[in-house]
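Q: Okay, next protein. This is Potassium transporter from Xanthoceras sorbifolium. I've checked the sequence twice, so it should be correct. Can you predict the 3D structure?
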Amino acid sequence: MLKFFRSTGIDGWVSLGGVVLSITGVETMFADLGHFSCVSIKVAFTALLYPCLILAYMGEAAYLSKHHEDIQRSFYKAIPGKIIFKYQIMFIVATFAAIVGSQAVISATFSLISQCCALNCFPSVKIVHTSSKIYGQIYIPEVNWMLMCLCLAVTIGLKDTNMMGHAYGLAVTTVMFVTTCLMALVMIIVWKQRIISVVAFLVFFGSVELLYISACVYKVPEGGWIPLVLSLIFMAVMYIWNYGTMKKHDFDMENKVSMRRIVALGPSLGMVRVPGIGLVYTNLVTGVPAIFGHFVTNLPAFHQVLVFVCVKSVQVPRISENERLLISRVGLKEYGMFRCIVRYGYKDLQQENYDFENRLVSAIVKFIETEEEEEEESAMMLTTESSREVGDSDIEVLHAPEHPLKNSNLKENMKQSSEDTRMRESDIEHPENFVLKNESIEILRAKESGVAHIIGHSYAKAKKSSSILKKFAINVVYAFLSKNCREPEVVLNVPHTSLLEVGMIYYV
């Protein structure tokens, strides 16, 4: 390589930016690993792709060895002249090759955007499942339209394939270098490799990739600025969205409403409980959100059963259906308030036909029954421990023949408790047989009265003491993204007939 640089000078070094275009297909092939199996890629590359590439490159190299001056159109002129319609055929083949290469980029973009939405790093968009059998095949209309507009803008604006090649080369080489750096982190954190091995890997591959990047930097004024500008724009959008979301979460954490305050407000506001189940959606996993305090202050009435629903995306690929819902109680049992944390992995997507209301009610009933059983078990354990502390004389008195009523009452109580246990087991299978005093029947009756979904329609605004940059980021950019992204009720598939929106301003 040094001999090549000495003979060609700076022009040979700069030409590495064009040489890198011959290996960009490898990067696209690895991008396909997220959508095809390793076996199918190996078979296709070995049996079809590699032989065709070798023949095409050998034929073009043979043509260039005799025609040094004609480089621009060597791809078309390298075809033997006896073939009819050779230009048209090769144009069609090149078009299909471009479609196949762009399809990998489009699919990878859909996958990345969906994961960014799950991690609150990108505004919510519509995600459509294109296959009912194969998981991961998704389609995002908004992103597809954005890619189409960007492709048309670049093609019409540049009007030069060389400038497009410069932009593509800089983007690919930068992606390769970033991938190498992230691979080094995986080797240290996940694979637990030695530092010497990681440094050797980073120096060997990183030096080659930095050499190609430095050659592509010379092409920045000639089209290489496009990927740099687009990356800065998308990075700014992701940072501002994540920053605004985290600030709203901090506002909710600082302005949580205590249960004592809610109970204290009841007599003064004339607060009443209406039949039905109210689902209050919030991002908090603890406490009562500020949006609920704002709601009861303006409308001093809420439902007989209140459930605070929190939808969270966890750092695992998938969550099983048995572990999807986490139910807990808020306040005392008399309040009739629960909390439900709905967990999704970053690869889990909510289905449109997901029967959330029935699943939620079933989970709450199961939680109540389990809670009662645990209370009975704990009471029995306390009774057993207390009986062990009774003296021998007391035990003799309990089992003496002069106390037949106590012995009969004890047997009757044990028989009655076993019958109650069997009754609860049958009630779980057949909810219509619940005892009227059971809390579970109140939940089911409230479900029959109707379910209302209460969602906060919040507006974030920067404080007056904030800097100009923060005001622009929150009041302009974040407000624009919030207004044009998908609404929470659409993401959660909430029916409009039972939707209540509560407006509130968040000062961050």
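A: Here is a summary of the prediction. The chain has three domains: 13-227, 228-348+450-508, 356-385+407-438. The first helix runs from residue 2 to 8.
Q: Noted. On to the next one.
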